[in-house]
Amino acid sequence: MKKDRPVAQWPRKSMFKQIPLSIAVIDRSFRIVEVNRRFEKEFGNWRGENCLRLHKRRINGGFRALASKTFKDGRTRVSQEERQDAQGEAHHYMVYLSPFKDEKGEIPYLVELSIDITDRVNLEKEYRLLFDHVPCFVSVLDDSFRVVEANELFRKTFSREGAQYCYEMYKGRDTVCPKCPAVRVFKTKKTCTSLQVGLDKEGNKTHYMVTASPFRIQGDRVDRVIEMAHNVSDIMRLQEQIKRIEQEKLDAERFAAVGQTVAGLAHGIKNILMGLEGGIYVVNSGLSRGDMELMANGWNMLQTNIKKTSTVVKEYLQFARGAEIKVDLANPAHIAAEVTDLYRDAAQRSGIELVSQIKDNLREAPLDHEGIHSCLANLVSNAIDACNMSDKKSKKITLSCLERNGTIVYEVKDNGTGMDYEVKKKLFTNFFTTKASGQGTGLGLLVTRRIIHEHGGKIGFESAYGKGSLFRIELPRKRLPKIKKEALQEAQ
Amino acid sequence: MPPKILIIDDEPEIVMYLKTLLEDHGYLTVSAPDGVQGLRLIKQEKPDLVCIDVMMPRKTGIALYQEIKTDPQLRDIPAILISAYESAYTFKGKAFRRLVQDKSIPEPLRYFEKPIDVQAFLGFMDELFPRKTPEP
User: Fold this and answer.
1) Which of A278, A389, A435 has the CB atom closest to B16's CB atom?
2) The pLDDT of residue A284 is above 90
3) Angle formed by the axes of helices B35-45 and B61-70, to 10°?
4) ipTM of the predicted assembly exceeds 0.90
5) Which residue in chain B is spatially nearest to A279 when comparing CA positions?
6) Does residue A352 contact residue A382 with C-beta atoms inside 8 Å?
């Protein structure tokens, strides 16, 4: 064949032989009458053999039927089949069956052209495997939200009888879901993510995080969207569990505080009882000795302890009754400023400098204004007492209010007496007071701690004997109580 | 000379009560309102017994007890603790060792819970000072 010869003049025979595709010519009795080189190389010499033997391992439909149809109507047919090559290895082929017409228009032969598509088929299989086994729900939607493809996990979880549309499958709805990410993808052609709650086949609530992306673009519009969704129900359940555990912990802390209060109350009552028993004894002793002064002392003891009983009972009732806090939006800084104003004079009279370090850029927070106020008042009042008990010349209390990493922090620092080991140990655990008789019931810090716990916060302290103390209240914003609906309505 | 008892308690009523009770039963008494003054009085008066309240301002009863028991001059003076703590907090065995790690410090001779059982308290005193306790 010379190079400058026009294509039309190439000898057909030579072209037939050299085409790099397997070609066979079949007559009406399904006998292979001619094959080209490639065919021979791939399947061996089948000239004169019945082609049905070659085609016995077809994937879809019988070859005889297919060939007969083409002999009859003269239309080209395509089929996919699996066939053994000359070495006995199975391959996949795309087979084109075309009529060969003679001058009369009759079809004495069919030309069969086979293309090896084994690589493509294997790749498809791998993709299918991947598609079916990825541990998330994968579906392909057309622009009417019909699910045209779905992986195994999706089918297993969401396929309902008769359901065709994604909203029917995911949620059992009959219209497109609100905030549907696919709607946005069709509109914007951009990938889009959304957290949705669906119902599985059994009707269980399923939380899933779905990512929708353009899958096929026709012209300038998206006509297929692929949705990949992760089941996040376990994570959501865990989150709920964590929330519940936190709440339970809070409740437990509350119960513990109440328990300690009861134990503390017993401690306080025992002291009072001893005072009362002592008073009676001293009065009797004064009587039998004829000592009027002793009798008067005994009487005083009785009076003091009866007064103490009434104070303890009142404070305890207040503590017990105040179990419910009243939460409203309040500025944490304002409360601190109020307490500083309240105690400035009292501190000054005792020769104590009361300093406030309050950040004024704090946002409002759901707080029990009165409760937090009484906590700070209690701490400042304790600090004043600690300063009064100390012999230092320059006495100072600092009340600060700031926010650190989403946590509202109050600090009350004094340079008073400070606390030793035993005092620190008992500080929050009992009706414990180091104050002189009649000046404190030991309930103040317990009430303070209860209020702080009710706010989901914590209270701690640092103290060094002889140097001073620092009490710190920490209220993480995310743990603060919710404002009750009634309170909100009232505010509006 | 009757035995001399030092009462250390920040509650004046408790001091008054114990003072009257002990005096009625033939003891001499001295008292202090806190641990600091109490320690000074121990050194000064050399009492035959010290009754220490556990919870006091300035210096707690436990701190005072440890100071007495580590001072060679004072360690032989018998000391008892008085407090409104429940039995769970009694100052015995392991509970005491949690408060006082130094094993050379002995447990207190006796611990009385408030309000004190007068019979038991006087019975204990009789045992401690047998010949010297006249009946009222």
Assistant:
1) A278
2) yes
3) 30
4) no
5) B17
6) no
